[in-house]
Design brief:
84% helix, 0% strand, mainly alpha, 239 residues
Length: 239
Protein backbone atom coordinates (compact mmCIF):
# COMPACT_ATOMS: atom_id res chain seq x y z
CA UNK A 1 0.00 0.00 0.00
CA UNK A 2 1.38 3.40 -0.95
CA UNK A 3 0.61 6.78 0.60
CA UNK A 4 -1.54 7.44 -2.47
CA UNK A 5 -3.88 4.51 -1.81
CA UNK A 6 -6.91 6.69 -2.59
CA UNK A 7 -5.45 8.02 -5.83
CA UNK A 8 -5.36 6.83 -9.43
CA UNK A 9 -1.57 6.69 -9.23
CA UNK A 10 -1.72 3.93 -6.64
CA UNK A 11 -3.98 1.80 -8.84
CA UNK A 12 -1.70 2.39 -11.83
CA UNK A 13 1.31 1.32 -9.74
CA UNK A 14 -0.43 -1.85 -8.60
CA UNK A 15 -1.32 -2.64 -12.20
CA UNK A 16 2.36 -2.39 -13.19
CA UNK A 17 3.36 -4.55 -10.23
CA UNK A 18 0.80 -7.15 -11.32
CA UNK A 19 2.36 -7.34 -14.78
CA UNK A 20 5.85 -7.57 -13.23
CA UNK A 21 4.78 -10.42 -10.94
CA UNK A 22 3.51 -12.45 -13.90
CA UNK A 23 6.84 -11.87 -15.66
CA UNK A 24 8.88 -12.69 -12.52
CA UNK A 25 6.88 -15.89 -12.05
CA UNK A 26 7.55 -17.02 -15.63
CA UNK A 27 11.26 -16.15 -15.49
CA UNK A 28 11.59 -17.91 -12.13
CA UNK A 29 10.26 -21.17 -13.57
CA UNK A 30 12.85 -21.04 -16.37
CA UNK A 31 15.80 -20.30 -14.06
CA UNK A 32 18.55 -22.83 -13.50
CA UNK A 33 18.04 -22.97 -9.74
CA UNK A 34 16.80 -25.37 -7.07
CA UNK A 35 13.22 -26.58 -6.92
CA UNK A 36 12.97 -25.10 -3.41
CA UNK A 37 13.95 -21.65 -4.72
CA UNK A 38 11.40 -21.88 -7.54
CA UNK A 39 8.70 -22.93 -5.09
CA UNK A 40 9.44 -20.04 -2.73
CA UNK A 41 9.38 -17.42 -5.48
CA UNK A 42 6.17 -18.92 -6.89
CA UNK A 43 4.56 -18.70 -3.45
CA UNK A 44 5.65 -15.10 -2.99
CA UNK A 45 4.27 -14.09 -6.39
CA UNK A 46 0.99 -15.86 -5.62
CA UNK A 47 0.61 -14.33 -2.15
CA UNK A 48 1.57 -10.81 -3.27
CA UNK A 49 -0.79 -10.87 -6.25
CA UNK A 50 -3.66 -12.37 -4.24
CA UNK A 51 -3.19 -9.77 -1.48
CA UNK A 52 -3.34 -6.85 -3.91
CA UNK A 53 -6.46 -8.26 -5.53
CA UNK A 54 -8.18 -8.68 -2.17
CA UNK A 55 -7.25 -5.12 -1.21
CA UNK A 56 -8.85 -3.82 -4.41
CA UNK A 57 -11.91 -6.06 -4.08
CA UNK A 58 -12.52 -4.68 -0.59
CA UNK A 59 -12.16 -1.10 -1.87
CA UNK A 60 -14.51 -1.66 -4.81
CA UNK A 61 -18.12 -0.45 -4.49
CA UNK A 62 -20.37 -2.48 -6.88
CA UNK A 63 -23.45 -0.24 -6.69
CA UNK A 64 -21.53 3.03 -6.60
CA UNK A 65 -24.40 5.27 -7.71
CA UNK A 66 -26.70 3.89 -5.02
CA UNK A 67 -23.95 4.26 -2.42
CA UNK A 68 -23.23 7.82 -3.59
CA UNK A 69 -26.91 8.78 -3.31
CA UNK A 70 -27.11 7.36 0.21
CA UNK A 71 -23.98 9.24 1.30
CA UNK A 72 -25.29 12.52 -0.11
CA UNK A 73 -28.65 12.07 1.63
CA UNK A 74 -27.13 11.08 4.98
CA UNK A 75 -24.57 13.88 4.98
CA UNK A 76 -27.13 16.58 4.24
CA UNK A 77 -30.09 15.19 6.23
CA UNK A 78 -29.13 16.76 9.58
CA UNK A 79 -28.50 20.19 8.08
CA UNK A 80 -31.73 20.13 6.07
CA UNK A 81 -33.80 19.20 9.12
CA UNK A 82 -32.36 22.06 11.17
CA UNK A 83 -32.09 24.64 8.42
CA UNK A 84 -35.18 24.12 6.28
CA UNK A 85 -37.73 25.08 8.96
CA UNK A 86 -35.90 28.32 9.75
CA UNK A 87 -35.36 28.98 6.06
CA UNK A 88 -39.05 28.59 5.19
CA UNK A 89 -40.04 30.97 8.00
CA UNK A 90 -37.45 33.46 6.84
CA UNK A 91 -38.57 33.26 3.21
CA UNK A 92 -42.16 33.86 4.27
CA UNK A 93 -41.18 37.02 6.11
CA UNK A 94 -39.00 38.16 3.23
CA UNK A 95 -41.86 37.65 0.77
CA UNK A 96 -44.19 39.65 3.00
CA UNK A 97 -41.66 42.48 3.19
CA UNK A 98 -41.17 42.40 -0.57
CA UNK A 99 -44.93 42.59 -1.08
CA UNK A 100 -45.21 45.62 1.25
CA UNK A 101 -42.32 47.30 -0.56
CA UNK A 102 -44.02 46.66 -3.90
CA UNK A 103 -47.24 48.22 -2.65
CA UNK A 104 -45.36 51.24 -1.33
CA UNK A 105 -44.05 51.93 -4.83
CA UNK A 106 -47.62 52.64 -5.96
CA UNK A 107 -47.96 55.38 -3.32
CA UNK A 108 -47.01 58.93 -4.35
CA UNK A 109 -43.39 59.75 -3.59
CA UNK A 110 -44.05 62.47 -0.97
CA UNK A 111 -46.52 60.31 0.89
CA UNK A 112 -44.13 57.39 0.77
CA UNK A 113 -41.34 59.53 2.23
CA UNK A 114 -43.64 60.71 5.05
CA UNK A 115 -44.49 57.09 5.85
CA UNK A 116 -40.82 56.24 6.10
CA UNK A 117 -40.15 59.24 8.36
CA UNK A 118 -43.01 58.17 10.61
CA UNK A 119 -41.49 54.76 11.23
CA UNK A 120 -40.79 54.11 14.88
CA UNK A 121 -37.34 53.28 16.18
CA UNK A 122 -38.62 49.79 16.97
CA UNK A 123 -39.62 49.28 13.32
CA UNK A 124 -36.24 50.54 12.12
CA UNK A 125 -34.52 48.17 14.55
CA UNK A 126 -36.57 45.25 13.18
CA UNK A 127 -35.55 46.26 9.65
CA UNK A 128 -31.88 46.34 10.60
CA UNK A 129 -32.16 42.97 12.34
CA UNK A 130 -33.89 41.49 9.32
CA UNK A 131 -31.17 42.82 7.02
CA UNK A 132 -28.53 41.16 9.20
CA UNK A 133 -30.60 37.97 9.30
CA UNK A 134 -30.92 38.09 5.52
CA UNK A 135 -27.14 38.31 5.13
CA UNK A 136 -26.63 35.56 7.70
CA UNK A 137 -29.06 33.15 6.02
CA UNK A 138 -27.59 33.83 2.60
CA UNK A 139 -24.10 33.12 3.94
CA UNK A 140 -25.25 29.92 5.67
CA UNK A 141 -27.06 28.74 2.56
CA UNK A 142 -23.94 29.43 0.47
CA UNK A 143 -21.75 27.51 2.91
CA UNK A 144 -24.06 24.51 2.88
CA UNK A 145 -24.30 24.63 -0.89
CA UNK A 146 -20.49 24.66 -1.04
CA UNK A 147 -20.37 21.64 1.29
CA UNK A 148 -22.75 19.70 -0.95
CA UNK A 149 -20.83 20.74 -4.07
CA UNK A 150 -17.49 19.73 -2.52
CA UNK A 151 -18.93 16.41 -1.36
CA UNK A 152 -20.34 15.82 -4.84
CA UNK A 153 -16.91 16.56 -6.35
CA UNK A 154 -15.20 14.17 -3.94
CA UNK A 155 -17.70 11.41 -4.68
CA UNK A 156 -17.28 12.10 -8.39
CA UNK A 157 -13.52 11.53 -8.06
CA UNK A 158 -14.22 8.36 -6.10
CA UNK A 159 -16.48 7.22 -8.93
CA UNK A 160 -13.59 7.51 -11.37
CA UNK A 161 -11.35 5.59 -9.01
CA UNK A 162 -14.02 2.94 -8.55
CA UNK A 163 -14.15 2.44 -12.32
CA UNK A 164 -10.36 2.04 -12.42
CA UNK A 165 -10.55 -0.53 -9.61
CA UNK A 166 -13.14 -2.47 -11.64
CA UNK A 167 -10.71 -2.57 -14.59
CA UNK A 168 -7.87 -3.55 -12.25
CA UNK A 169 -9.88 -6.47 -10.86
CA UNK A 170 -10.71 -7.70 -14.34
CA UNK A 171 -7.09 -7.64 -15.51
CA UNK A 172 -5.61 -8.65 -12.15
CA UNK A 173 -7.80 -11.72 -11.86
CA UNK A 174 -6.35 -13.00 -15.13
CA UNK A 175 -2.81 -12.22 -13.94
CA UNK A 176 -3.25 -14.16 -10.70
CA UNK A 177 -4.75 -17.12 -12.53
CA UNK A 178 -1.81 -17.14 -14.94
CA UNK A 179 0.67 -17.27 -12.05
CA UNK A 180 -1.27 -20.07 -10.35
CA UNK A 181 -1.58 -22.19 -13.49
CA UNK A 182 2.16 -21.86 -14.13
CA UNK A 183 3.22 -22.69 -10.58
CA UNK A 184 0.60 -25.24 -9.55
CA UNK A 185 -0.25 -27.37 -12.61
CA UNK A 186 -2.62 -30.17 -11.67
CA UNK A 187 -2.98 -28.86 -8.11
CA UNK A 188 -6.56 -27.60 -7.88
CA UNK A 189 -6.43 -27.26 -4.09
CA UNK A 190 -3.49 -24.83 -4.33
CA UNK A 191 -5.12 -22.78 -7.09
CA UNK A 192 -8.37 -22.44 -5.17
CA UNK A 193 -6.48 -21.64 -1.95
CA UNK A 194 -4.89 -18.57 -3.50
CA UNK A 195 -8.09 -17.52 -5.24
CA UNK A 196 -9.79 -17.61 -1.84
CA UNK A 197 -6.92 -15.54 -0.42
CA UNK A 198 -7.63 -13.00 -3.15
CA UNK A 199 -11.21 -12.67 -1.92
CA UNK A 200 -13.00 -14.85 -4.48
CA UNK A 201 -15.99 -16.79 -3.20
CA UNK A 202 -16.43 -20.43 -4.22
CA UNK A 203 -19.07 -19.48 -6.77
CA UNK A 204 -16.72 -16.94 -8.36
CA UNK A 205 -13.61 -19.08 -8.72
CA UNK A 206 -14.63 -21.28 -11.64
CA UNK A 207 -16.39 -18.33 -13.26
CA UNK A 208 -13.01 -16.57 -13.28
CA UNK A 209 -11.28 -19.62 -14.75
CA UNK A 210 -13.97 -20.06 -17.40
CA UNK A 211 -13.92 -16.37 -18.32
CA UNK A 212 -10.15 -15.91 -18.42
CA UNK A 213 -8.89 -19.25 -19.74
CA UNK A 214 -11.83 -21.51 -20.55
CA UNK A 215 -11.68 -25.28 -20.59
CA UNK A 216 -8.31 -26.21 -22.06
CA UNK A 217 -5.74 -28.94 -21.54
CA UNK A 218 -4.03 -26.63 -19.06
CA UNK A 219 -7.18 -25.97 -17.00
CA UNK A 220 -8.82 -29.40 -17.34
CA UNK A 221 -7.76 -30.39 -13.80
CA UNK A 222 -9.74 -27.47 -12.38
CA UNK A 223 -12.89 -28.52 -14.25
CA UNK A 224 -12.43 -32.07 -12.95
CA UNK A 225 -12.34 -30.89 -9.32
CA UNK A 226 -15.54 -31.03 -7.21
CA UNK A 227 -15.87 -27.26 -7.59
CA UNK A 228 -15.34 -27.54 -11.34
CA UNK A 229 -17.88 -30.33 -11.80
CA UNK A 230 -20.43 -28.34 -9.81
CA UNK A 231 -19.76 -25.31 -12.01
CA UNK A 232 -20.20 -27.32 -15.24
CA UNK A 233 -23.47 -28.82 -13.97
CA UNK A 234 -24.88 -25.39 -13.09
CA UNK A 235 -23.66 -23.93 -16.36
CA UNK A 236 -25.41 -26.70 -18.30
CA UNK A 237 -28.67 -26.12 -16.39
CA UNK A 238 -28.62 -22.41 -17.27
CA UNK A 239 -28.56 -23.14 -21.01
Amino acid sequence: MTQDFDSARDISLKGKVMVDLVIISKINLRQQCSAVRKKEVGQLCSIYTATMLKMMKEAYIPDFEGWKKEIMENKTAVWKKEFDAKWESFLKERDERSERARKELSIPFKQRMRMRQQKTEEERMRDREFAKQDDSYMLEARREWDKKRNLSNILGSMGGRNSRIRSFLKDGGGGLLRILLDNYPGKATEVFKYLKLAGYEEGEMMELVDREEGKTEETEFLYQSPLGRKFLKEKKQKK
